[in-house]
Amino acid sequence: MSAFGVVGNLGQRLLALAERRLPALTRLRAVEALPIRLHRRRIYVLPSLFGIGFAALLLIMQLGALNYANNPALLLTCLLGAAAWMSLYAGFRCISGLELSAIQATESHAGSSVSIRCRFASSTRSRPNLRIRWAGIDHAFAIAAGPPTETTLELPAQRRGWMHPGRLKLWTDQPLGLFVIWSWLNPEFSVLIYPALEASPPPFPFDGKRSGIRMARNEGDEYSGLRDYRSGDPQRQIAWKASARHDSLLVRESERLIQDDLHFDYAAIRGLDHEARIRRLTAWVVAADNAELGFTLELPDQCIGPGHGALHRHACLRALALLPDAH
Amino acid sequence: MRIDQRQFNLLAVAALVALAAHLVRLPLWLAIPLIAIAPWRMWSRSRDPKPISAWIRVPLVFALVFVIFNHYGNIFGQEPGSALACGLLMLKILESERVRDARAAIGFAAFVLMSALLFTQTMAFTLLICLSLVVLLAALNALQPAPILTRNLFASELRTAALLLGFGLPLALAAFLFVPRLSSPLWGSPGAFEDARTGLSETMAPGSMTELLIDDSPALRVHFEGKVPPSSARYFRALVLWDFDGRTWTRDGWRPQNSLETVNSAADEISYEVTLEPTNRPWLPALDVPLETPDRSRMSRDRTLHARNSVDQLRQYRVRSALSYQLAASLAPLDRRRALRLPKDFNPKTLALAKQWRSEGSDDSTIIQAALDRFNASFTYTLSPPLLGRNSVDDFLFDTQAGFCEHYSSAFVVLMRAAGIPARVVTGYQGGWWNALGKYLLVRQSDAHAWAEVWLDGRGWVRVDPTAAVSPARVEQDGSTAGAGAAWNPGSWLLEIRNRLDVVNRMWTQTIVQFNALRQKSLLTPIGISNADQGDLLRVLACVIAAFLIITTLWVLRSGRGRKGDRLDLAWHKLQRRLARRGFPVQDDEGPNDYLKRIKSRLDNDSTTAALEQLIRHYIELRYATASPKDADIQAFARRIRELKLPRAVNS
Fold first, then answer.
1. A73 contacts B160? CB cut-off 8 A
2. pTM for this model (two decimals)
3. Region class of B341: left (phi > 0), else alpha (psi between -120 and 50), else beta
């Protein structure tokens, strides 16, 4: 294991050196705008480890056939060698002309994974056994002939903020595994990773700053319905009598809270470090949005809201994700 | 990465295919467990995917080496080596759980397949082995992680493998032609093929030729220059047996060439080329009697040809022979004594009979005739004769009176010697089947024959075939084998077909198996290099392969260029190009609807606009209103574009 580690480390250092010295020869350094079409000038081919072993085997077989002046055996090795060579073309055709047309990512929080959808343009031929190696993750997929295809790969979202997955290696060793054919893609793509959610956050804070609760709809209607208690619902709203009948806490729904009934203040959270506060705020924002409550988010340098809905939620999460690190 | 059950099953099948190529030679007790390993592991793996522990696998390897050493007495050499390779391959299957293992196993399977060709080099077998490569490559392809899912995955993998082999064929043939052959082996001697191959044996005892006579594999093929001798003159001498110990005839050792028996009236000379199948023995059969010695061989005193080394590969040689001749005008006293010597206290009745003939005052030719008449009168020809006792010739002549060529020639020579006529036994081949298509004579092992030569004053050694007196068909009939009238009869129509098919085998032998360093040298004669050395060959190989690679590479690169989009896009672009030629190039900012509108506004041919409108609407529907258009629809669309007639000229 350690030996592999050393070799891997050495390999990386060599690669770094090569890239520094010979930028044109190694990889495409600049970020490229989508779509990216793979043409022959950016497709590289080398025999795989198995390919080298196979070549050695072929050489031994050839020597044996020659030594015993055994022409049928020689014919067999020639055939095998020719087929192996043809597999290079098959693999090249598999990658050549491939076009990465779009990349999209789903919303994700740090500590989980982010699903990235890569969309490939329509293709006249089918391209099986393609692989992507991106940010340390391997993903295999196939593109059938015909309309555009999408493939989804999961990258680990390690920390909040902008994630730049960087270069991705699109490669294949189709069809026999003898040659590795690859191309480096550096698509113009980054994804904002929202902060992690605190696992079990405390209920929403209600402090003196809140300006009161207003009824959302027709005020005469005492309660138009009941729903299950969610963490963060004010105690006043709990329908105690109904809850007693149902063995679970129920909340009067008609009293919909709007506007600035919730106020999440970074400064008001005490006893936690910077990241833990962000996690708690994130959990509150997500919970409040799920509960369709309005809220205000107050951060050290900005105040968002009051507001509610998806846009508000994203604005808040974005602000939280981009908060500078603690000093 | 672990392989799934399907990949494993295919791997096991590939290993079984490689094993099958060796099955004939493996002992049964080894073959059955080896075969059983694959299905067993397929079954056990599907139930419990846990890998097999090294505590089981490693002892199995040792056990394998042990049993092979025990059985063959060695683990090197071709037979034990290939058995060991088969065993190791199957044990490798047992431990193949990851893609890397599986790939190594398939590479090894290819090696095992190839080693099968060390033993058999017939065309059918070679083709079979080459076809097996399809399965191996398909198994290799199946190890890929994300195939296009189709209804029959295995079929598509087989197709991929077959395409690779098919496209590789020209390259393979070029490499085969120009890879420089070795003129001498790098290691070992090619004579490593020690296993008995059937062929004429050095000695002749009752029953020693039986196996040969029912073996209808080809022994030699003869290509005549000029006229073809009649069947009754096709006696290929291989060995002359002088010494008899009462049971077995043995041959004379090789003696210096300066005492060759002379050939006097060599009037009817004939030149021919013989292609001899490997026999592991040095004899080179030649029509009687050869006048010259081919390369790498020598002629024994009694004018039979011997190669310097055993013939362990196909061997071709050219000979000139005399068909009517006088062999050894005078007989040296030493030779005369040897040609008259008989073992003491054997065959008293035979000796008495010969003495009686001699005492009746008959001359040599009368005695010969009397012996032949005797055979002709009451003897029968059979390949399964009764067993003979100590006095084998007595038993044969007076008791059983049934046998085949070795009995007749042996008894005849003993009779002659007893009567004072110098005589000897000759073994070789007689007859053969004339293949009119390939214009060559096919001589099978079953054409092996034994006859006699007697020395007559003034005529030298004269060939006498006592078997012909009993079974003339044996000698005169074309293509019939020794089995005529015997218990063994392979069905003549089948043999006839096989005889005719032999022309293919001969082409195979001549073009592929026989292709050696010498032939390769003359390969480049058409382009002006008459005696190519290895450097020339390598250069030509490099040129041919480079040319091939450049062509294929260009083709592959081209095929990836300019073809953007799927088939529907291709059809649509074709329509755009056609319209552009008529003066309607599509604008960059124009969608199909605007394009159509513009064309309509400028074109007043109603039928064309209507058709065009239909086509473009069809495209819009296929492209924008369908998630994945059906192949049939796209093809119909492309066809309609091809069939669309546009007005010839449009003024823009």
1. no
2. 0.66
3. beta
